[in-house]
Amino acid sequence: xxxxxxxxxxxxxxxxxxxxxxxxxxxxxxxxxxxxxxxxxxxxxxxxxxxxxxxxxxxxxxxxxxxxxxxxxxxxxxxxxxxxxxxxxxxxxxxxxxxxxxxxxxxxxxxxxxxxxxxxxxxxxxxxxxxxxxxxxxxxxxxxxxxxxxxxxxxxxxxxxx
Length: 162
Fold this sequence. Notes:
Largest sheet: 7 strands, mixed
Strand content: 35-45%
CATH topology of the largest domain: Jelly Rolls
CATH superfamily of the largest domain: Protein of unknown function DUF192
Low-confidence stretches: 3-27
Structural class: alpha+beta
Mean pLDDT: 87
Distance between the termini: 46 Å
Radius of gyration: 20 Å
CATH class of the largest domain: Mainly Beta
Order of helices and strands: HEEHEEEEHE
Number of helices: 3
Helix content: 10-25%
Number of domains: 2
């Protein structure tokens, strides 16, 4: 086979190593449009819209008739605070996952009722809220103590940094 054969085998081997390593690197990379969760139940990832401005947070997921199963909305505040949400003009049931400044889940409100004006208290020291389709938190067994991973979660404070 000579040098040409060895070069071919090396290039094929290099191709397979890069091909196998690329998906793993892509999976661990933090992206603004994705959030990862982990806990003793396993890991999950959602494609998210980020609501980090007052008008975006006020609008939230109102008036939407559906949302992809693997989608959600991440509400980001500048600092931890008491938070309350309602479902007025929200047409789909939601699970609301409330996390502190480290991205650690402190409270989950499951199956929030569409169009309800009842206030949902998330907690006193909450900085991040992930809204996903109602029933997903139970289906995935997401619980308190789980950790969120997203670029908006300050790296120095994050329980699971990017």
